[in-house]
Every structure is written in structure tokens, then in C-alpha cells.
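We treat protein structure as text, and this decision shapes the records that our systems exchange. Below, we set out a record of this kind in full and without editing:

***
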Amino acid sequence: MTSARTVLVTGGAGGIGRAIVSAFAALGDDVVLADVAGAAEAAAELGVRGVTADITDEDSIAKALDEAGPVDVLVNNAGLLTIHGGLLELPAADMLRILQVNVQGTFLITQQVARRMVERGQGGVVVNLSSIGGRQPTPGMGGYESSKAAVDALTRWSAIELAQHGIRVNAVAPGPVLTPMLAMGLPEGSPAREAWLARIPLRQLAAVEQVAAAVVFLASANAAHITGTSLPVDGGQLLV
């Protein structure tokens, strides 16, 4: 019988992260839910461990990892999606904040977890949350999408350098995902929702559980020969 893995999920208190936490917990893994706020409350609700972590702060990351213990699977879900603006209007400070969280934050925690994995000498898995926006632009969302293109590049960089240590690194790249926040902003039947659906060949937004399933797959032994890839979960949106 395979022993339970320790799975650390950043940004796990809500939305996609919460679904990822639930999916790993259902497999019997020892899940550590990390978030900048609300980690303890969300972890208690889901029956997992919780740690507070700010992925843009190296000391905060180190403290969280000390609390979590040895990590077998890191899921880099934490990210900033709420700041938008066109190229000509987006304030420089907002662009910097997006990059600090989505790129620098992902880099910092990956670096610290990978160092500990290498020291243990037992391999490991990292799964990043990217976006098809890194490959298909949407007006007004370029700051976020540029950061996710960088996450894809970081995924490949990490994968090629960590392969020698038995550490696989992949990404899941969703299209629009039906989180509670998105459902509020794009009510069913609204012109805005229909505009998004028109871009998706399967005519559906992804459920958070579908994104979580892709993360679980890439972290599993079934994906043992997959590294350095970014898997779209987009209903075919990249095809059009």
C-alpha cells in the first residue's frame, strides 16, 4: 500500500484551490492548505492542515514549509486575477503587483520547495496553475496573461533543471473557470457569459472540479513520464 503523500496547495482557501485541496484529500493524501488569509478556517472546513503563507515573502514561505514538513507535491495555485486594464491604461504599479504575485511568488516557493526536495533525494512533483491566456490574448487582460506566459516558461525552466533530481514540473492551463466569483460577474444567460461561451467549441465553462482533476492527474504516477508541459483545460478554446 502506497503511503500518503504530503501535498501543499497554495491559494487553497477558495475557488480552484479549494477544489484541488478537496480532490487530493479524497485520495487520502495529507493535504496542507496554504493561503495568505483564511487558511485555518478553510482547512478546518475541509478536514486538512492549514498554514498561512505569503508567496511573495521568502521568510513567510520558509515558516510555512517548516510547519508543513516534507512536501511531496507542490501545487502553485495562488495568483492574482482581479487586476485588469488595457496596455495604454494599466498603471505600472498594478503591472508590477501582478508579476510579483504570479511570477515572482511562484518562483520563490518553487525554489524553496525544490531545494528541500533535492536535499531529501526522493524526487517530487510540482504543478503550476497557468492559463490559456498566456497563449491567446484577451483585450484588457494582458497583464495577467503575460504573467501566465511567464509561468509556462518557469514551468519549462524548472522541469529541465529538476529532472535530474527526479522532480517533475508541469502546469495546468485553464480557460474561463466557473468559480463563485466568475459566476457572480457573468450570470447565466447574460451577454457577457454568452460572449465567453461563443469562444469555446464545447460551449461550456470549466467546472473547478475539472481543473482539479487535471492537477491530480499530472501529480499522479499515471503521468510519470510527463514533465515540462502546460495542459490546457479549455473546452477547445485554443483551437479557434
Notes: The domain at 6-177+207-232 is CATH 3.40.50.720 (Rossmann fold). The chain has a mean pLDDT of 96. The longest strand covers residues 167-174. The chain is about 45% helix and 15% strand.
